[in-house]
Specification:
The chain has 309 residues and is an alpha/beta fold. The chain contains 12 helices and 13 strands. The strands form 3 sheets. It has a 6-stranded mixed beta sheet with strand order 10-9-8-13-11-12, with helices on both faces. A 4-stranded parallel beta sheet has the order 2-1-6-7, with helices on both faces. Strands 4-3-5 form a 3-stranded antiparallel beta sheet, covered by helices on one side. Strand 1, helix 1 and strand 2 form a beta-alpha-beta unit. Helix 5 packs antiparallel against helix 6. The protein is globular and about 60 Å long. The model has no long low-confidence stretch (mean pLDDT 91).
């Protein structure tokens, strides 16, 4: 069986440690910061630190913009691996949120014009940030178990709708401004004490399912929602993401450990390329569970029932 590389884009939010552990490559993107300064979008902190970045984002959010890697940049990345003797499995942020997937396919076509014997498969993750990263980690594990590139790609497409996000974001204005949630839903994230609880739609959009008044009720609802949606937690790696919410994330992590006893829980960050579109105040868990329903109708009904008890 020919070996293959897993290549993700910067929106997977996989830390250097996770990329090394699971042998995952990534492609840089592009960021513009206040003052019109252009920087590489990378999966590391080249800003002074995470806290300073999110504090700056609060004040200057509209001055931060992102752009994906170009088809030419994808082509060059693919050719590097093809010439080294590898096939390439390219996984991209949801095509409903970015043009990255289309650029990845364009780059594939350009690369295969030059290297006709190569194999490149492009997969739309239909997720972003740590949900996307979790999918890439699972792809790596399938590869380690002996799946070839075609089998791994099919596994991704068959299982991408099983990834859930559950937690809250204190201020939804950032995701609303970037088209990842409706403005009316964002309003609820600005009410004092209200915790909007959200999951992924099939396209990777953050969708508010319900609102909890206060942290205590929110945590209780989150754990109950996870109980009724997670599958085989003892066999899972659960990723947790936070943006300036380390203390609350550690509290949430302890609840998940006590209730579900997963194989492993990894607290990860949200790097600038995704952070610009997410904003500060995120605390969420990412896990595999039951396939999400169309328009999250079943999940909305479930959470409403939990919150109304």
């Amino acid at each position: 069986m020919k070996q293959f590389k897993i290549l993700v884009d910067v929106n997977s939010d996989l830390s250097p440690d996770l990329r090394e552990r699971f042998d995952i490559e990534y492609l840089k993107a592009h960021i513009t910061i206040p003052g019109g300064i252009e920087k590489d979008g990378i999966l590391d902190w080249d800003f002074s630190n995470e806290v300073d970045f999110y504090n700056s984002l609060k004040k200057h959010g509209k001055e931060y913009t992102t752009a994906p890697a170009s088809p030419e940049e994808y082509k060059n990345a693919y050719l590097k691996y093809l010439k080294a003797g590898f096939d390439v499995l390219s996984i991209s942020i949801s095509s409903k949120l970015s043009g990255t997937y289309d650029f990845a396919k364009m780059g594939r076509d350009l690369a295969l014009e030059e290297f006709k014997d190569g194999k490149i498969i492009c997969v739309d993750s239909r997720k972003y940030s740590n949900g996307f990263g979790l999918l890439a980690i699972e792809a790596s594990q399938r590869r380690s178990e002996g799946m070839n590139i075609e089998e791994t790609a099919k596994w991704l497409e068959d299982n991408r709708d099983k990834i859930h996000q559950m937690g809250w974001l204190d201020d939804l204005s950032f995701v609303a401004s970037k088209g990842r949630i409706s403005s009316s839903q964002a309003f609820f994230g600005q009410l004092i004490g209200v915790k909007p609880l959200a999951d992924f739609s099939k396209d990777g959009l953050v969708t508010v399912l319900g609102k909890a008044k206060g942290e205590k009720k929110a945590f209780k609802a989150i754990i109950e929602y996870m109980k009724q949606t997670i599958v085989n937690p003892q066999d899972q790696i659960i990723l947790m993401a936070e943006t300036n919410r380390k203390e609350k994330t550690l509290e949430f992590k302890k609840m998940i450990e006590d209730e579900f006893h997963p194989k492993e829980i990894i607290i990860n960050t949200v790097y600038p390329s995704c952070g610009i579109n997410v904003g500060p105040g995120l605390m969420a868990a990412y896990y595999f569970g039951k396939p999400v329903s169309d328009e999250l109708k079943d999940e909305t009904k479930l959470l409403e029932g939990i919150l109304n008890k």
